[in-house]
Amino acid sequence: GFDNYVASGSVNPPLTTVEVDPNATARAAVELLIKKITGQQYNHGHTVIGGKIILRDSVRRIANTAEIAK
After folding, report:
1. Which of 13, 16, 44, 53 has the least CB density, counted as fewest CB within 10 Å?
2. Model pTM?
3. What share of the chain is helix, strand, coil (3-state, %, to 5)?
4. pLDDT tens digits, residue range 11-41?
């Protein structure tokens, strides 16, 4: 899932999701837009906005990868 949508925790199994701060996303977009409108230099590349992974039951740690090969 993405954006830690409320339903991702309500399904079976609950889905692991990525949560990104919408305020940080909006802030970066507005800053870029202002630079473009005012003719300032801006990066035409990618903007990276951090996030966090919310682990739920749709993933699990594998204790020993050698056991998978059996």
Report:
1. 44
2. 0.63
3. 35, 15, 50
4. 888 999 999 999 999 999 999 999 999 999 9
